[in-house]
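Review form for a predicted model. The reviewer records the input and the model, then writes brief findings.
Reviewer: anonymous (R2)
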Amino acid sequence: MPERKNKIFIVAGEASGDMHAASLIREINVLNENITFCGIGGNEMKKMNAELLYGIEDVNFIGFSSVIMNIKKIKAVLKQCELRIKEDNPDAVILVDYPGFNLKLISNIRKFYKGKIIYYISPQLWAWHKSRIKIIRKNVDLLIVVFPFEVDFYEKEGIKAEFAGHPLVKRIDGFLNSNLKEKNDKIQISMLPGSRKDEIERMLPVLMETAVKFQNEFECNVNFICSSNFSRAYFTKAITGSNFNIIYDENNTQLNYRTILNSDLVITKSGTSTLECALIGTPFCVIYKTGKLNYAIGSRIVKIKNIAMVNILSGREIVREFLQDDANPERIFHEGKKILTNSVYRNEMKNNFRHLREILTKEDASENAARLIVQNLEGN
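Model under review:
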């Protein structure tokens, strides 16, 4: 009789989660190749032969108003995931960040599912929605965090958390070991408008107007690093009005990282990209715009001063953040010009990035997380 294959149901609801989930799958398969994966994800998980019930685009809605507008679709996806978990009875359910969907899923399935529920890359409950900690405490068997301070945070709440390291550190160190910054005759400026449709639509106009200001002031090339969640044609149509370079890395050939490395300045939306820029070592500033209702609600429940993870980890603002009305072309341009022309300011920022690396450590997060997960499965 053939050996029964272990099954894992895994959910990654956004581009960064898809990337981290794929790395996790790869490392789990190194330790135990007798495991199949099914769930929600994107191109990176698909490359790891995970069966995708739904893609990121089916659940990736940001902001209260966007979620409300798509609530029927989200509920339908949630229901199908629950049915699949009930049908397959996998050995483990792994959630990768994305708390809005994942915390609801684990609350629902715990009523019938007796297997391991593992949360990898903890929700940022220390920033907002601290009340959701009780969902973690009640339903999660193994909590794996990627920031050192999260261990103490959860311990004070009576929850044991395992620190694995941050998966971006190894990924970017590997990239830097095989890539050097190229010499360019012109200043290189890169813009990252995001990976969700609503944030892209809000930030692209601001970034394009800002880009024109840089072109008028400096002899520079402007790159727009675009998410492969959408087609190249989508960005070709949306990014208009000047001679901009569209950077589109559909096959994950590290083109995005090479573009950031070779940039003199990056202007990025808040999110994983802030850590990527800092670990690569390229000076940047952060912008973010959301709907007025979303911002009004969010600002009431967020418990921290900054939104960029590099600032949160550092305990102070080491890169400027431009939110809502402050995210206007004039202010962003002024900060970018300061980074480009003030060497003392620029070098201080780079020194702060090096300190950030020390905080995150060189732990191999994907490998450590995979080992913890396989040990939990074998302990069943």
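Findings: The mean pLDDT is 89.
Further findings: The first strand starts at residue 6 and ends at 12.
Recommendation: see findings above.
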